[in-house]
Write the structure tokens for this entry.
Amino acid sequence: MIRVNPNYQKLQSSYLFSTVAKKVKDFQTNNPQKPLIRLGIGDVTRALSPAIIKAFHEGVDEMAADETFKGYGPEQGYSFLRELIAESDFVSKGAKVSAEEVFVSDGAKCDTGNFQELFSQDIRIAVPDPVYPVYVDTNVMAGRTGTFVDGRYQGLTYLDSNPENGFVPSPPNHAVDLIYLCFPNNPTGACASKDDLKKWVEYAHQHKALILFDAAYEAFIRDPALPHSIFEIEGAREVAVEFRSLSKSAGFTGTRLAYTVIPKEVKVYDESGNAQSLHEMWNRRHTTKFNGVSYPVQKAAGAVFSAKGKVESKALCDYYLENALIIRKTISDLGYKVSGGLDSPYVWFDTGMDSWQFFDRLLNNQGVVCTPGVGFGQSGQGYARFSAFNHRQNVIEAVELIKKELSRS
Ligand code: MLT
């Protein structure tokens, strides 16, 4: 008899964004004439930029001739791309990272979700609350939690992110082994300062813990005082892994390319306390389970780091940031407490009611989709998240509709 992994039965019935998508689909079926504006899932809407498209076409053309055709590439990514990433994203900005420490993949969602596989069943895990659900759900699937009670999985350390701490939690006062951090944060849009990250790096050293740092939104940082990478913090190379993605920074949600940086210094420990190389472990896993991103996509990704590609990608992020500012200002002018929308494409706000109730009202009355805050964790109850990844005209129309709905409250 084929039996299921019992841990799957602990999961909430559906992944957050699938539940949102189903509700939206039902709304459209029942209201085929009503317009809909999507500010829910963080999915980009604007086309790939000219420099990227040109390289993408060139990559496809190379696949069309025997002389330039490529079969399997290196699982970790082509050297040309790994070198560009290390230089442009890290070395030129003062963070030491070598090309060999960059692992190219098809998504930060997959990498952040898969990474837990490398660790023992009984490690102690800390996650912020609210949090990107992938970090929690993948540990539930792996059997590292108890059951879901009152909105939380037993056995996890939840780090409350709230207005009191500016949505940037401090290390707990007990030891944990694995810590998930994401800045600029999904969903709250909050950013961590260098001092905030220093505290986490010191904590990780003190407890021989590991930080999984999700920097998928770093391209939206404009404040020069804010760190873009955890590797800007001294000592982070021994205790942190960083996840990056071109999904939001260069419009690759449908094209797929991300990268994970694992410094060679990071050590993890076996049952006897002997240090092991995390870089070697991930390399072993990656080469066994992944066959690389397609060549044309890597070629297109390389163009993101060209002089023209950098200007175009920055302009794309600036466009979405302007949207975020419009949303943020509208809600804050109505007297609501707002976080994010500055240095971040997400606007997070306290709706003053149950998150799903607000979601349903906004969808059914105004045809605007948001993401209910409670879907990111118990501490998100009462909040909603707006994504700025839409066309300007839609955002302008959406804020009028949001204003209308909020004025009814
Ligand atoms: C989000 O809306 O939180 C993101 O689009 C999710 C993701 O990147 O997987």
